Amino acid sequence: MTYGGDFMTVGEGRDETPTYPKVFGVSITPTVGAILLTLLGAVVAYLLWANLVQGTLQRNRELKADIAAKEQQLLNQEETQKQIAAARTRLQEAQQLQADVRSLFASEDSLNTLLLDINERVQSVNAGITDPARRATLARFDLNAEESGLITDGSLGGQVNNQLERRVYDVEIRGTFPQTQSIIRNIERLQPLLVVSDLNSSLDATSQRIVLDDRGRLTPTGQPDTRITTTFKLAALVPVDTPAPTAASAETPAETTTPPAQ
């Protein structure tokens, strides 16, 4: 069978070149598109890095620095607390030492009873002695106002000047030598810090007698005890911050200079 007419060759009359969109005169081919997408991804990644990641890292660094600063503050606070605790301990030790040292000195309360304390020591050596002539006596206990007062002469060391007050009492004891020795030793054992000075003893002439029997011989018993009269100054040291005694309390010892014989 024969057909007439024109025959069209396959492919004839068609444009084989594909068309691509253009941007600013540049055809966006697959290659160009891939490059543009890559660049766009890089830009987006940079923007994300700059706006999110980098800000987060900066914030993390700031937080780490802040945490380190807080930890250092805590360490400093702990060290400060340790120093405060150590200072408080030293203060307590110093206060305790001060209290211990102050307890060695006299106080107004101890001075108010000093006369009674001294007289008690005197009477303790009279235990069992009924003969008044053989008993020891506290003949004098007077406040020496001229020698009493604030210590400023350096006699006890320059460091205690204006820190201590001296109360001086004139004391006279009568008795035998053993009695007097025992009394003074007992006075030294009293709690307040007392200073004994100007100690002077003299024999009582009225007791210097010898008893003879009818044949002119010394009797083995009945010889009178030799008595002595001892005078001394007794100084009590009082911290200056202790309230000063009133005139009435200062004159109290002088008003009772001679305790009643017991």
Could you explain how this protein is built, in words?
This protein is α+β, with helices and mostly antiparallel strands. The protein is 43% helix and 19% strand. It contains 5 helices and 7 strands, in the order E-E-H-H-H-E-E-E-H-E-E-H. The strands form 2 sheets. Strands 3, 4, 5, 6 and 7 form a 5-stranded antiparallel sheet that branches. Strand 1 and strand 2 form a beta hairpin. Helix 3 packs across helix 4. About 6% of the residues have low confidence.
For the record, give the distance between the C-alpha atoms at the N and C termini, rounded to a whole number. Answer: 180 Å
> Strand portion, in percent?
15-25%
* Average pLDDT for all residues: 75
Helix content: 40-55%
The value of Rg in angstroms is 56 Å
Q: What is the succession of H and E elements? A: EEHHHEEEHEEH
Count of DSSP-assigned helices: 5
Largest sheet: 5 strands, antiparallel
What class would the helix/strand composition place it in?
Answer: alpha+beta
Number of strands: 7
Shape: rod-shaped
Poorly predicted regions are 242-258
Short summary:
By secondary structure, the chain is an alpha+beta fold.
